[in-house]
Design goal:
Blueprint: E1 16-21, H1 32-41, E2 44-49, H2 54-66, E3 71-75, H3 89-97, E4 102-111, H4 119-136, E5 140-145, H5 148-158, E6 165-167, H6 174-182, E7 186-189, H7 200-205, E8 214-216, H8 242-253, H9 257-271, H10 281-286, H11 290-296
The structure holds zinc ion.
Length: 297
């Protein structure tokens, strides 16, 4: 991967899938198309847009229609928004889940860190979304913060009925990592792992994730990777910055970025049941000579 001089972009060594992009965020209001096109030409050819509420999931669905070869979305209600989860929500989510571009239920889970919704509201919204995932046969895109015990218990109870699930933006400790892996879940790693202040524990843990359970994500516009040589002035993370996360993870595993790129891409395609990818010549041309570039960095 090369960092072009004076630029903060690294070319991906192989097409990548960013499994968590909050592309409907108002921080992208004036540049959404540019952000998508920049990502695709940096080799991030597939992005899964995170649905955090019915409204955001609907907006994500609309955006996916514009870029059917590059974008898919999840439909769900984030634990912060669980207080808005009402009687009409399951039906609205189910309608979204029926769309071909909808590849998972979520972002759902428990967040006892900030408790924007009460724990009771979070648990009942989470349970309803687990049931919806079971009913629709879709995998789950999960969030968890300071709620490992309860979330693990709920997932263990339903695990044999659930197709698959990924703990997105994993930032927990060894116990929670192994607890989730024991339930045969996937783990999503963000730029948290690039953070030299609060990501060190994760840096040491990450190699424990079996390569067939690892996926990567930017969680853009949040969590700008702190290993970037030149950070953008606006501090806004973009899906095009995903290779920086790949670079950090390859150092943690002491494995080639190319191998991790391939594995995470394959895992994402399998997990989200994405169609086979046909790269156009333009994209193919841009993803060039990856291995040697990577070592020049
Ligand atoms: Zn999250």
């Amino acid at each position: 991967m090369t960092a072009t001089e004076g630029n903060n972009l690294l070319q991906a060594p192989e097409p990548l899938t960013d499994i968590g992009v909050n592309l409907t965020s108002n921080r992208f209001d004036n540049c959404r198309n540019e952000i998508i096109e920049q990502a695709v030409s940096s080799g991030i050819t597939r992005m899964i847009l995170t649905g955090t509420s019915v409204k955001e999931s609907e907006a994500a669905s609309t955006l996916c229609q514009q870029y059917p070869e590059n974008l898919w979305f999840t439909a769900g209600v984030h634990p912060h928004d669980a207080s808005q989860f009402d009687k009409s929500t399951p039906a609205a989510l189910k309608d979204l889940a029926m769309e071909t571009a909808c590849v998972a239920i979520g972002e759902a889970g428990l967040d006892f860190n900030r408790n924007f919704s009460t724990s009771e509201q979070q648990i009942s919204a989470f349970e309803a979304q687990i049931e919806l995932a079971i009913e629709t046969g879709k995998p789950m895109f999960l969030h968890e913060r300071e709620a490992f015990e309860r979330q693990h218990e709920m997932l263990r109870y339903y695990r044999d009925q659930l197709k698959d699930a990924v703990i997105h933006c994993f930032t927990g400790d060894k116990k929670s990592l192994f607890g989730y892996l024991d339930l045969d879940l996937y783990i999503g790693i963000t730029g948290w792992v690039c953070d030299e202040r609060r990501g060190t524990e994760l840096q040491e843990l990450v190699h424990n994730i079996p390569l067939d359970r690892l996926m990567i994500e930017t969680d853009a516009p949040y969590l700008l990777p702190r290993n970037m040589t030149k950070k953008p002035k606006d501090r806004t993370n973009r899906p095009a910055f995903l290779p920086w996360i790949l670079l950090q993870i390859s150092q943690c595993y002491q494995k080639e970025a190319l191998e991790l790129a391939r594995r995470t891409r394959e895992n994402s395609a399998y997990f989200f049941n994405l169609p086979p990818e046909s790269l156009n010549d333009q994209t193919k041309e841009k993803i060039h000579d990856p291995v040697s570039d990577f070592y020049r960095l």
